[in-house]
């Protein structure tokens, strides 16, 4: 069972007494590209936040890399691109490299890095999204799609093994979206990063998805691995 990097068991969650998730169980294995699908309000973002420990379920448990969430400490292995609602204010007082470097200063980050190591990681992650020449720019002065690419670089900077993305291509133009999916595919297939992505574009990316987690009215109706005959749970 070692190849299970994410497991949710019987997760239920309510906001102010209003039930959003009911007994959701699912697994994601090492090397999977999992698409989390379901209609607006189905509970996809909520489920991701529970997996990241940002929300606490009413009942049920999450395991990351075999550790129950409360005991999990290796947060540098996890990257997260939250769902974007608004673009940042034009005056937001941080440069691109400051935004991207934040996870390297997080308390949850275990490794001590030199300035040079940090700079090289920042450069590499910006290069992955084609934004390295924007390092010194103020984030608030970039377009929505450019800001989104910066948030993706931020999620990549600590070299995650498991990447959560919540509708990451919102606001990104078609051509950039294609580049971005190619990047995700490369991270998944060549670098072995496991991906869990909320998406409404499942049909466009079907060929690179190995697992589908489908939410419907708060319950998981499917957690299928498409290849290897499936390990439906
Ligand atoms: N902070 C909150 N407080 C109260 N209710 C919330 C909160 N966040 C979400 N909800 C409700 O929980 C339900 C699930 O929301 P969630 O954001 O997880 O859906 P989603 O599947 O991500 O939808 P979308 O595709 O629109 O992003 C919705 O009915 C929503 O109104
Ligand atoms: Mg959402």
How would you sum up this structure, described in words?
The chain is of the alpha/beta class and about 230 residues long. It has one domain (about 35-50, about 75-225): Rossmann fold (3-Layer(aba) Sandwich), CATH 3.40.50.300. About 30% of the residues lie in helices and about 25% in strands. It has six helices and ten strands. It has helices at about 45-50, 95-105, 115-130, 145-155, 175-190, 200-205, and strands spanning about 5-15, 20-30, 35, 60-65, 65-70, 80, 160-165, 195-200, 210-215, 220-225. A six-stranded mixed β-sheet has the order 6-7-8-3-9-10, sandwiched between helices. A four-stranded antiparallel β-sheet has the order 2-1-4-5, with helices on one face. α2 crosses α3 and α3 packs across α4. The longest helix is centred in the last third of the chain and has 16 residues, at about 175-190. The chain is globular, with a radius of gyration of 17 Å. The two termini are about 15 Å apart. The structure holds adenosine-5'-triphosphate and magnesium ion (MG).
The strand line-up of the biggest sheet is: 6-7-8-3-9-10
CATH class: Alpha Beta
Could you give me the name of the CATH homologous superfamily?
P-loop containing nucleotide triphosphate hydrolases
Secondary structural class: alpha/beta
Task: Indicate the proportion of strand residues.
Answer: 25-35%
Strand elements, count: 10
CA gyration radius, whole angstroms:
17 Å
Order of helices and strands: EEEHEEEHHHEHEHEE
Principal-axes geometry comes out as: globular
CATH topology: Rossmann fold
In the CATH hierarchy, the architecture is 3-Layer(aba) Sandwich
Small molecules bound: adenosine-5'-triphosphate, magnesium ion
| pLDDT < 50 runs, ≥5 residues | none
Please estimate the helix content: 25-40%
The number of distinct structural domains comes to: 1
| Sheet having the most strands | 6 strands, mixed
Instruction: Average the pLDDT over all residues and give the rounded result.
Output: 88
Terminal residue distance: 14 Å
The number of helices is 6
